[in-house]
Design goal:
heterodimer; A: alpha+beta; 4-stranded mixed sheet; 8 helices; B: 6-stranded mixed sheet; binds iron/sulfur cluster
């Protein structure tokens, strides 16, 4: 089975938001939902400036934290992409907390994020955002072709941008959005080393069954259960994070000793 | 029919649509399902569950006009995409084009003809039938014509049906006072400068030969924020190919962020920079000498004129580094003739704009760009006949963006009672298309003769014409104000009669013809039925024509018939055009080599006139001169305005999809200045201009991206029409703060960057 991916060329993106608009129009997103946000990046002091736009959108991580924490299977992997089935989402918001990029939002009580235009691409079309991007900053296709294109583009812009690099080849297990970055990730407000919280696997195996129990309940008495689930979840997640921080510290300390 | 106020509570559009059609009911059922599960596992969206109908048309969300394919199911549009065969869209659309359906399904739309029952400006109306509205309008127009002559009716128009009012009806009726804001409030300096210098208009589609360009210079042109689709495509592709990019802008625009050289110029000093560039090109012998010898005249005078205008001279004026000025001139020259200063679009800045644009074209000529591959091509209009109407009562009316109406012999056209334009052409300014802002004064003073009626089609009078208080005064004085629009914009409240228009995707429209490198003709057919009781502009113009004795111009009964007649002249039918993908692309003559030695330059000399005899004769500077503009006093900032990529003029702020992407504008304020004023990002402030006009509140964007002496905001916000339920009260209006303007003595353009504002923390 082929893996699919997007190319996002932040050296070309001109911040026009055509992609964001096409996504809302083509997917008839409910009011308030938006899968792409353009975030201006500026560095330096007038008049010595550099800048561009970060396209804040789901990066379709191979090792997707959102999928791992999703208790209902609303979020799932397919063809290398992270899909979302809003039908079965219960709005527990675990995904919004787990995503290392802060992507999913709860809109109308359900998770809301890019599903890589499942309906359109399965009908043989290109994703709406890709089709309309006037600057050819977006492409969609088989991941290895997208990776090759990304590397070729990075080479082509190196004269202009010495720090240019491909982002997402290995990050978070390999992103389904391969980014041509003209500068260091920090300059585009991207984590240099995005990580699925270390203990998510534990979470998936041990904590989630409890959450699923709550899920069953929530189907019966929706609102209340969601609140309980959320409250428990927040506590659990805080604990996990504390443990993780502790583990990292220990690891760091060990490294320091060596 | 009941009383309505423009403050209509927000109702769901679908509810309205349902009362009319069973098809919509079906679509609604499916739609609700889709909304519940837009991407459910295996769920098929509603729009794949009915038969998809495709219609070809042309986007109307901005005046650039990209070709589209509109897909609809069961009478409801679900997606609008670029038509791949269209030379402008090439299958893509900008954010605004993507929001075409959102604009059409805006629940705030005008839905019925209305007649005013309150005071003007109060916004109290009675819904009436089309017969009642048109009869009343016709009666009043005839009475005004009887007493003052047909010239006393002014017609303002913009958007895709403007032709029917500002051109067809205006000429048939006999008024030379028809005007489009795209001229004197936007492009007329660049058009007149181009006519004076190379004898050719720039035209609606700037003829930059992007495919081969190797160096692009932008002056204030903020591609990316100005999101004209094709220009963004061309610019980013040229950039990706490695073309050098030079951006002159007081603001670090999205385009500046891509530039190889950014020149953060002091506003108002561009002509000094241009003259210094000319100085470098000439003194360092870096111009295309052979081309200049063959195709230009006046070079020696130009060389003498700029001899002292060194980069150091300009640096003191522009606050730029002289070495940066020198280097950029050299970079331009290294890439000639594939090196172009882009003409820009909105260039009515300081009132001396025709001269600045002449300097731009002089550089393009020194670079040998005109008629060269990768430079500036010669555009050509597509071949198709006009509809064979009887001779009009006045020849040439609004003039569009690129020509002076009916001025071939140098004389202005006159109306049936012997009056020429009332805008002061030939007295207040030399030449150019009808200047909209200069038609306001005659409405108030009656000089040179009274203008008594105004038909306004799709122009938001209070967001486009400078000096809003004056416009309001004029609106109070008129005997008749008719507003034709899609939405209850603020000026609609000032109308006596309101006519609601069907949007482009709800109506058939005349074919769209584009003067271009590859001239082309595009079909505009409807995708769905008109909303509520709305009608197309052609229908309104015709019905009105029949009521005011202009039957002979309206022998055709439908626009389809009108279009079929035109298409016949090139051996086409609507069906054939549809089968061929909605677009007919013809061959152009883009390069000098296509003219086989003959001159394509339609100046008196047949050459590019670096030195303009015509201007000298008329008493204007024959070579561009830098004249300083007034500077903001301490504590005040020059008000700059421009575009946000998801909005057009004051037209789209209420479009739900675009409102979601950008609900309000921000005040760009230099970060250090903001800190010194104790302001931070997100603070809300008011702005007050030199005349005491206020607008706001507006959110501060404290940024390094702008000079300390200017502030910037995107145009078109600060709506105060209660009927615009999303846009009302959001952001500040640049138009409200532009109470003064500098009239360009050559082209009649209104320079609007001459206003100063100060920041007020409390309302
Ligand atoms: S459409 Fe393309 S250029 Fe425009 S914002 Fe999106 S990615 Fe950037
Ligand atoms: S970016 Fe966030 S939402 Fe998208 S796949 Fe990764 S974890 Fe999930
Ligand atoms: S792939 Fe589809 S769903 Fe995802 S951002 Fe693009 S248009 Fe939206
Ligand atoms: S540039 Fe955008 S709004 Fe303008 S016509 Fe093209 S798609 Fe429509």
């Amino acid at each position: 089975m082929a893996l699919y991916a997007f190319l996002l060329d932040l050296s070309r993106c001109i911040g026009c938001e055509a992609c964001a608009a096409a996504c809302i129009a083509g997917n008839e997103l409910p009011a308030g939902a938006q899968y792409i946000h353009l975030i201006e990046q500026t560095h330096g002091v007038f008049p010595h400036l550099t800048g561009g736009f970060k396209n804040h959108r789901c990066y379709h991580c191979a090792d997707a934290a959102c999928v791992k924490v999703c208790p209902t299977g609303a979020l799932y992997k397919e063809d290398g992409l992270t899909r979302l089935n809003r039908d079965v989402c219960i709005g527990c918001a675990y995904c919004t907390d787990a995503c290392p990029f802060n992507v999913p939002q709860i809109v109308d009580g359900r998770s809301s994020k890019c599903d890589a235009c499942a309906a359109t691409t399965k009908a043989g079309g290109q994703p709406w955002c890709v089709r309309t991007c006037p600057s050819d900053a977006l492409r969609y296709g088989e991941r290895r072709e997208i990776l090759a294109e990304a590397h070729a583009r990075v080479e082509a812009i190196r004269a202009r941008y010495p720090k240019a690099r491909v982002y997402g080849e290995a990050e978070a297990g390999g992103l389904g959005v391969v980014i041509v970055l003209p500068d260091a990730p920090e300059a585009f407000d991207l984590p240099a080393n995005p990580q699925t919280p270390l203990l998510l696997d534990v979470w998936q195996k041990v904590v989630q069954p409890a959450a699923v129990g709550l899920t069953g309940l929530s189907v019966l008495v929706t609102g209340v259960a969601a609140i309980i689930a959320r409250r428990n979840h927040m506590k659990e997640l805080a604990e996990l994070r504390a443990q993780q921080a502790q583990t990292e510290q220990n690891a760091g300390a060990q490294e320091g000793e060596r | 029919m009941g009383k309505v106020q423009l403050q209509i509570s927000r109702r769901t559009f679908l509810k309205g649509a349902l009362t009319g059609s069973a098809g919509a009911a079906l679509a609604l059922g499916a739609l609700e399902e889709a909304a519940a599960a837009p991407s459910g596992k295996g769920a098929t969206p509603w729009y794949y569950r009915g038969e998809i109908k495709r219609a070809y048309s042309v986007c109307d969300m901005c005046p650039w006009r990209c070709g589209v394919i509109v897909q609809s199911v069961n009478g409801r549009v679900y997606k609008i995409d670029g038509n791949p065969a269209d030379p402008k869209s090439r299958g893509m659309l900008c954010a605004r084009g993507q929001a075409g359906a959102s604009f059409m399904y805006d629940p705030d739309r005008l839905r019925s003809p209305m007649i005013r029952i309150g005071e003007r400006g109060e916004g109290k109306f009675q819904e009436v039938t089309w017969e009642e509205a048109l009869d009343a309008m016709a009666q009043k127009l005839l009475a005004i014509k009887e007493q003052y002559g047909p010239e006393s009716v002014a017609i303002f128009g913009h958007t895709s049906g403007e032709f029917w009012f500002t051109d067809y009806f205006a000429q048939a009726w006999g008024t030379p006072n028809a005007s489009k804001p795209s001229s004197s409030l936007c492009t007329s300096p660049r058009e007149e400068a181009s006519l004076l210098t190379v004898g050719l208009p720039v035209g609606g589609h700037e003829p930059v030969d992007w495919e081969g360009v190797r160096c692009v210079t932008l002056i204030g042109s903020h591609i990316g924020e100005d999101s004209r689709n094709t220009v963004m495509q061309d610019f980013t592709r040229a950039w990706a190919r490695g073309a050098k990019v030079i951006v002159v802008d007081p603001r670090f625009s999205s385009a500046a962020a891509k530039a190889d050289y950014w020149l953060p110029i002091k506003p108002g000093t561009d002509t000094a920079l241009l003259l210094a560039w000319i100085n470098v090109l000439i003194t360092e012998h870096r111009y295309d000498a052979e081309y200049v010898a063959e195709w230009t005249q006046g070079f020696d005078k130009l060389a003498a004129h700029v001899a002292e205008m060194t980069p150091e001279w300009a640096a003191a004026i522009t606050e730029l580094d002289p070495e940066l000025i020198r280097t950029t001139a050299r970079v331009m020259a290294e890439h000639l003739p594939q090196s172009v200063i882009v003409p820009g679009r909105h260039v009515t800045w300081y009132g001396n704009d025709t001269q600045r644009m002449r300097a731009v074209y002089i550089i393009n000529a020194l670079l040998g760009a005109y008629g060269r591959e990768g430079g500036i091509y010669f555009n050509k209009s597509p071949y198709i006949e006009a509809y064979p109407h009887p001779p009009f009562a006045v020849a040439g009316s609004s003039g569009g963006c690129s020509a002076e109406p009916g001025a071939e012999n140098g004389e202005l056209p006159v109306g049936p009672s012997g009056k020429a334009r009332a805008d002061g052409a030939r007295t207040k300014f030399l030449r150019g298309p009808t200047a909209m802002q200069e038609l306001i004064e005659p409405m108030i003073t009656g000089e040179p003769y009274p203008i008594k009626a105004l038909i306004v089609y799709g122009v938001n009078l209070l967001h486009s014409i400078p000096n809003v208080p004056r416009t309001i005064e004029a609106l109070k004085k008129l005997d008749l104000v008719v507003a034709i629009d899609v939405l209850p914009m603020e000026h609609v409240a000032w109308a006596d009669i309101v006519l609601p228009e069907a949007t482009i995707y709800e109506r058939f429209e005349d074919v769209w013809t584009v003067s271009h490198k590859t001239p082309y003709i595009a079909l505009r057919e409807p995708a769905v039925e008109p909303y509520a009781d709305t009608k197309p502009a052609w229908w309104m113009a015709r019905e009105l024509g029949l009521r005011v004795g202009l039957e002979k111009y309206f022998k055709w009964e439908t626009v389809e018939e009108f279009v079929a007649t035109r298409l016949q002249s090139i051996g086409y039918t609507v069906e054939k055009l549809r089968e061929e993908g909605g677009v007919i692309v013809q061959k152009g003559k883009p390069y000098l080599s296509d003219f086989k030695g003959a001159s394509p330059f339609k100046t008196p000399s047949g050459k590019i006139e670096l030195y303009s005899e015509a201007l000298a004769l008329a008493g204007h500077d024959p070579l561009p001169v830098y004249t300083p503009v007034e500077e903001p006093p301490p504590g005040w900032f020059r008000l700059l305005y421009g575009r946000h990529p998801v909005h057009t003029f004051a037209k789209t702020q209420n479009t739900p999809l675009l409102h979601q992407l950008n609900p309000e504008n921000e005040l760009w304020l230099n970060a250090e200045v903001a800190a010194s004023l104790g302001l931070k990002n997100g603070d809300r402030v008011w702005l007050e201009n030199q005349d005491g006009a206020r607008s706001g509140p507006i959110k501060v964007k404290a940024t390094q991206r702008i000079r300390p002496d200017a502030v910037f905001m995107s145009h078109g916000f600060g709506h105060n029409a209660p009927g615009l339920s999303l846009a009302n009260g959001k952001g500040a209006s640049d138009a409200a703060l532009i109470t003064r303007y500098a009239l360009d003595p050559i082209c009649g353009g209104a320079g609007m960057r001459v206003n100063f504002v100060r920041i007020v923390k409390e309302a």
